[in-house]
Fold this sequence. Notes:
Blueprint: E1 10-16, E2 21-27, E3 34-37, E4 40-47, H1 55-58, H2 69-77, H3 85-91
Parallel strand pairs: 1-4
Antiparallel strand pairs: 1-2, 3-4
Amino acid sequence: MRKDIHPNYQDVLFHDTNADVFFLTRSTVKTKATREYEGTEYPYYPLDISSASHPFYTGEQRKTSTEGRVASFNKRFGAFGGRSKKAADSAE
């Protein structure tokens, strides 16, 4: 193999912040943060989601809001849908 063309492959501590679970595995990810885990300091990389918190792996559905998708869509884009009542009345 040629020298100096491969990224640094090292032990990295991944943290699923959603489930508060730590994973120690080897990776080429570059990070400046470090954290101590089981008495040894490792490069640290936080994750939003992993197999510990993803609904496909956990079997749990997490509802992020109490309103439905249609209500949320109408709330955001309802003003753009068609002519307003004033424009409809003046066209008659």
